[in-house]
Automatic annotation (TrEMBL):
Signal peptide: none annotated. PROSITE patterns: HTH_TETR_2. GO terms for molecular function: DNA-binding transcription factor activity; transcription cis-regulatory region binding. The keyword Hydrolase does not apply. It comes from the Bacteria. The keyword DNA-binding applies. Residues 6-65 form the HTH tetR-type domain. This is TetR family transcriptional regulator. It holds the Pfam family TetR_C_7. Keywords: DNA-binding, Transcription, Transcription regulation. InterPro entries: Homeodomain-like_sf, HTH-type_TetR-like_transc_reg, HTH_TetR, Tet_transcr_reg_TetR-rel_C_sf, TetR_C_Proteobacteria. The lineage of its organism: Bacteria, Pseudomonadati, Pseudomonadota, Gammaproteobacteria, Vibrionales. Residues 28-47 bind DNA. It comes from Photobacterium jeanii.
């Protein structure tokens, strides 16, 4: 059972995620405290700055979509692991929170450059490094032979995984692709990637 402190931290994260999504990075810590039904002092006891709270919200969203360190320990065949990973990754990018956060980071990059940096560190950079670690391990084990440094190979696959559906969504449009079409596209991306990097199943 979660302690009282842990419960309050979850309340703060839930409130912050909602308000960052609805109002952008400009939301006040007072508003977050009010929605979380805790004091502002309690918010700062858990998160020293709004930057730290924002970054934690992004990381929590990644974990909720299973974009986390469990990837490296997955013993299943590499094609299955990568296909499921990029599907979850694309689903995360398509979430309302991710779309709005990306748009906020871009629109405020001139006035709040730290927002873009926080977004990069907690989202894209963390995901790329995690996938790179997995690919490097599979390269060491002889399952693949990377043609690029592991981090570049990870970025290659993640950019492929965006697909039409993500670019359209970030412009406020629908690609009208079904889930089955999305999965078929992502499966093909993984097949092309593994063929290029000489997968040895």
């Amino acid at each position: 059972m979660a302690t009282r402190s842990e419960q309050k931290k979850e309340q703060i994260l839930g409130a912050a995620t909602q308000l960052f999504f609805e109002q952008g990075y400009g939301v006040s810590m007072d508003a977050i405290a009010d929605l979380a039904q805790v004091s502002k002092q309690t918010v700062y006891a858990h998160f020293k700055t709004k930057d730290e709270l924002f970054e934690t919200c992004i990381r929590a969203k990644c974990v909720a979509n299973q974009i986390d360190g469990r990837l490296v320990d997955d013993p299943r065949p590499i094609q299955i692991v990568l296909t499921e990973f990029v599907y979850r990754f694309q689903a995360l990018l398509l979430s309302d929170e991710a779309c709005q956060t990306f748009k906020a980071a871009v629109s405020q990059s001139d006035t709040h450059p730290q927002l873009a940096q926080l977004y990069l560190n907690a989202g894209p950079r963390m995901t790329t490094e995690m996938l790179a670690q997995y690919l490097a391990l599979k390269d060491q084990q002889g399952e693949i032979k990377l043609l690029l440094p592991a981090e570049d190979a990870a970025m290659q696959l993640l950019l492929m995984a965006h697909g039409k559906v993500v670019y359209w969504a970030y412009l406020g449009q629908s690609s009208e692709e079904t889930d089955a079409e999305r999965y078929a596209y992502l499966n093909a991306c993984v097949e092309v990637f593994l063929r290029a990097h000489q997968c040895n199943p």
